């Protein structure tokens, strides 16, 4: 009987033109979301790749010129710095790039807000990585570009509610429910079978369209971590779909009319998907306000040193404190403007790093609070989980930021001593220049974070179904 009800429900669904139109529109939106996200990721990846290629080409050119003995050119109109100068290279920008994960197609997430590349230098200029993130809303993953995550978080619940808002009331109002229950069939089994039929169809539709989108987009299925992350994504979508079906049948269990059910479903969607996240945004911003950007400017200006006036004293004190940096072949010129500039820039950088840490701490506090409050809304749980799986959320960016910090330290430790020792780069030194290589966080860490959200969604669904079955005991058929 259970299987017959499922098959009959499928026949009824496919017999309705409005349902077919709605299903086609939803499938098109899923496909467009995948296309739009894949396009964005491809564009950003190509820009980052071009940046790294140009950077390596510049190193290769400098290495070749150094091997040929070129010392630079000071001709008017043809100035070229010494390619072996640690000052010119160290003061330039070395880019650290956060590569997209193999499942980034699932969500653009915050990759359009948080920078995926950071310029590292021994000076204080262009500290891009955190400056762009200051003041950004940690709940902004619920909005943004139209991608697959947007369709799942916003539009999937609407499709579910449009499909099942009258799953019982419609049958009751047409008199079909009374006829069905005159058979050896309980209301619980009937409802379970009808929900199962709708759930299987919708979940299969999402999976098929997503699989086609992945194939067309050229995703590397054999990439490390792809399988685990994809399974997690399937589980998140499963749990999120289950929650909204459970919510729909729970509303139906009150015995309201179909019109009342439609209004109730719309109101609940509005509250859980739009209103509640906005209220949490206000709360998070109020509890952990982000310091104004002017503090960074103030930190830079706090190092009030005149390199021409104080340069000699600063360098003299610096060499006294760090005798290991004293050049071996010649005595340094304490009036050297370049050496003084490096020293002052390092002081400014330390001050700015201290101030930047305050910004990062506030952003991290905001995210921690969001992580605790996300269980108030299934859309927040799902949005954070999908971004985590796609690798386009704050967690992966925080992991990236910590590695950039280490890389920045290695960059300074390589060039600064050579600058103070008045050394030149040898041909072999070009191969030793630090290069950034992102180390992916383990899938077990991602699984632990995402798994908790999935568990909560499933428990919510089970709780709603338990309440629904309890209310069905007194369901009115007239």
Topology, element by element:
Layout: H1 2-15, H2 17-67, E1 73-75, E2 78-80, H3 86-90, E3 94-97, E4 117-120, H4 128-131, H5 148-164, H6 169-174, H7 176-181, H8 187-217, H9 226-252, H10 258-287, H11 294-302, H12 307-321, H13 337-373, H14 378-390, H15 394-420, H16 429-432, H17 443-472
Antiparallel strand pairs: 1-2, 3-4
Description of the structure:
- The protein contains 17 helices and four strands.
- It is 68% helix and 3% strand.
Largest sheet: 2 strands, antiparallel
General form: elongated
Query: Unreliable stretches, pLDDT < 50, 5 or more residues?
Result: 126-143
Pattern of helices and strands? HHEEHEEHHHHHHHHHHHHHH
Widest sheet: strand ordering = 1-2
Helix content: 55-70%
- The proportion of residues in beta strands is under 5%
Question: Could you tell me the number of beta strands?
Answer: 4
Number of structurally distinct domains: 1
Number of helices: 17
Could you list some keywords that capture this structure?
single chain; 478 residues; mainly alpha; two-stranded antiparallel ribbon; 17 helices; elongated
Outline:
The protein is mainly alpha-helical and 478 residues long. 68% of the residues lie in helices and 3% in strands.
